[in-house]
Amino acid sequence: MNLDVVILAAGQGTRMRSALPKVLHKLAGKPLVAHVIDTARQLSPRAVHTVVGHGAGQVQEALADRQVEWVLQAEQLGTGHAVAQALPAIADDATLLVLYGDVPLVTGNTLTRLVAAANTGALAILTVELDDPTGYGRIVREAGDVRAIVEHKDAAPEQLAIREVNTGILAAPARLMKQWLPRLSANNAQGEYYLTDVVGLAVADGVVVIAQQAASVWEVQGVNNRLQLAELERQHQRQIAERLMTEGATLIDPARIDVRGTLTTGRDVVIDVNCVFEGTVELGDNVTIGAGCVIRDAVIEANSVIEPLTLIDRAHVGANAQVGPFARLRPGTQLERGAKVGNFVETKQAIVGEGSKINHLSYVGDASIGAGTNIGAGTITCNYDGVNKYRTEIGDNVFIGSNSALVAPVTIGAGATVGAGSVITGDVPAEQLAIARGRQRNISGWQRPAKKS
Ligand code: UD1
Ligand code: CA
After folding, report:
1. Of 194, 257, 320, 352, which one is least surrounded by beta carbons within 10 A?
2. Is the pLDDT of residue 409 over 90?
3. Is the CB–ligand 1 distance for residue 11 below 6 Å?
4. Which ligand approaches the C-alpha of residue 166 most closely?
C-alpha cells in the first residue's frame, strides 16, 4: 500500500532559546529532523512531506539534499491544522503516517508495525506509559478500548491520573484523515486544532482505533530544551555503544564514545575513551584506537594502531600501520601496509608506501613516498609557492635527513639520500647523496667575548 509520511516541524521551539530552529539542532551530528526523515525512508514511502513554519527557509536550506516535499504552515494553529496543510498532496488510497521533527529516535520497526495496523483500515496511534505523564495527552479507554485522547490542559482530575499517554505519532488511511481533519474545532483550552481529536471522530464513525505501545520510552521522547537534547544524545550513544560491543568491539568506557555517523568494527577492535567518529568509519580486525582520537570518513585496516590524540579525516590507513600520538592525517592521505606516522606529523594528499616512516614533526603534502623510505624529523614538503601547489615524488628506500625542506615540484629517486638540514630545490637521482646546506667551518683559538665591566 502507498505510504505518505507527514513530519511536523513548524514549531518555534521557544525553550531551546536559540536562533536556530529547534529541528535543526543536532543529535549525533545530524539535525533532529534529518533523523526523522532518514528513519521514515526505511519504510519506502511515496513521499515525505515536511511541514515547516518558524525558520522555514533555514530548515529547507539545511535539508536541501534530503529530497522532501515542503509544506508551509504559515501560522501554527495546532497539530491537526499542520497535518491538514499536507493533505492536498496526498492521494486518498494512501496510508498516512504522522511524525514529529523533534522526536528523533523513533525506530523503523515501531513505525512499520504502526503502518501495518493502519493498513487494515484502522486509526493506529503510538502510546507509551510514563511514570510522570504531566503535559501529555492522556489515552482514555472504556472497557479496554480507546475512546479519546484528552490533552493535559483539558483533562478532568480523574483523567490526569492516566499514565498511558499519546506520543503524537499516528497512522491512518488518508481517506479517513481527509474526512476528519476538516471537522476539527479549536474549541479547547489552547484554542488549537488538535490532531488528537481524530480519535474521538474515529470512535464516532465506528473506525477501529488501535493503540500500540512504543518499545521504549526514549524512542518517543521529544526534544523541548537543551537538557532533553543532551539526555537523548547520551541515550542514542549508549545504544550505539551497546551495538558495537555486541558486534565484538571493546569499548574501554561505553559512556565515553561519540559516533556521529556510521562506525563499523571488525573483531577485537579496542577503542579507548573520548574518541569521536564522524561520517563513515570502518575499523578492521584488531585495530586499536587510543584515547581522544577524532576520526572522520576513514578506513583503518586490520592490526593498525592509532595512538592517542590523533586526527584522521578522509584518509585510508592500511594494515599493520601505526599512527600518532598527536598525528593529523588530512584528506587524501593513504598509508600503505606497515607505514608509520608519528607525533606532530601532518599529511595531506599523500601516499606513504609500505613500511615507510615519518616519525616526528613533519608536513608531508601533495606527495607520494615509495616503500621502505625514512623521512627524518622536521622534514617539510614545500608544496605551495603562495599561488600554486606542486607535488613531491619520493622513491623507495630513500633516506631524508632531519630538518630538510623539499621544495616542490621535486623528485627524489629510489635509494637516494638527502643530508640533514638540506633545502632541496632540484631533483635527486637514484642512489645519490644530496647535501644542500652551508658547509661547516671550524675556527681554532676562538675566544668568546668577555662581559663588559
Ligand atoms: C502533542 C499532542 C499530545 C502528545 C504530545 C507528545 C496534540 C494536540 N497533542 O502535544 O497529545 O502527548 O504532543 O509530545 O497533538 N507543530 C506544528 N504546527 C503546529 C503545532 C505543532 O508543526 O501548528 C509541531 C510542533 O513543532 C511540535 C509538534 O508539532 O514539534 C507537537 O506540537 P506541540 O504543540 O508541542 O504539541 P504538544 O502540546 O506537545
Ligand atoms: Ca511537545
Report:
1. 320
2. yes
3. yes
4. 1
- Whole-angstrom Cα distance, residue 165 to residue 427? 75
Active site residues: 360
* 3-class SS of residue 49: strand
Compute the average pLDDT of residues 28-56: 98
Q: How far apart are CA 232 and CA 189, in angstroms?
A: 30
User: What is the CATH T-level fold of the domain 3-220, as seen in this structure?
Assistant: Spore Coat Polysaccharide Biosynthesis Protein SpsA; Chain A (3.90.550)
From the CB of residue 194, how many other CB atoms can be counted at a distance below 10 Å?
A: 24
pLDDT beyond 90 at 321: yes
Q: How far apart (Å, rounded) are the C-alpha atoms in residues 63 and 297?
A: 20
Tell me the Cα Rg of the chain. Answer: 31
What's the confidence (pLDDT) of residue 375? 98
Atom in ligand 1 nearest the alpha carbon of residue 222? 14
Residue in this structure with the C-alpha cell 521514515, named with its chain if needed: 40
Instruction: Give the helix/strand (H/E) hosting 200.
Output: helix 198-205
Say if CB 8 and CB 40 are below 8 A apart: no
Q: Which fold has domain 226-434?
A: UDP N-Acetylglucosamine Acyltransferase; domain 1 (2.160.10)
pLDDT score, position 1: 85
**Confidence band for 63, pLDDT divided at 50, 70 and 90:** very high
Query: Residue 428: pLDDT above 90?
Result: yes
Question: Taking the C-alpha atoms of 128, 262, 65 and 36 in order, what is their torsion angle to the nearest 10 degrees?
Answer: 0
- Quick one: pLDDT at residue 309? 98
**Residue at grid coordinates 492521494:** 91
d(CA 310, CA 327): 5
Enumerate the CATH 2.160.10.10 domain ranges in the chain, comma separated.
Answer: 226-434
Q: Which residues of 250-286 are buried (b: 16+ CB within 10 A; e: fewer)?
A: ebeebebbbbbeebebbeebbbbebbbbbeebbbbeb
Mapped onto helix, strand or coil, the DSSP state of residue 190 is: coil
Question: What's the chain's average pLDDT?
Answer: 97
Quick one: pLDDT band at residue 408, thresholds 50, 70, 90?
very high
Residue with cell 599529511: 347
Residue 199 is predicted with a pLDDT of 97
Domain span(s) for CATH 3.90.550.10 in the chain? 3-220
| CA 222 – ligand 2 centroid, Å | 7
**Residue 324 near ligand 1, beta carbon < 6 Å:** no
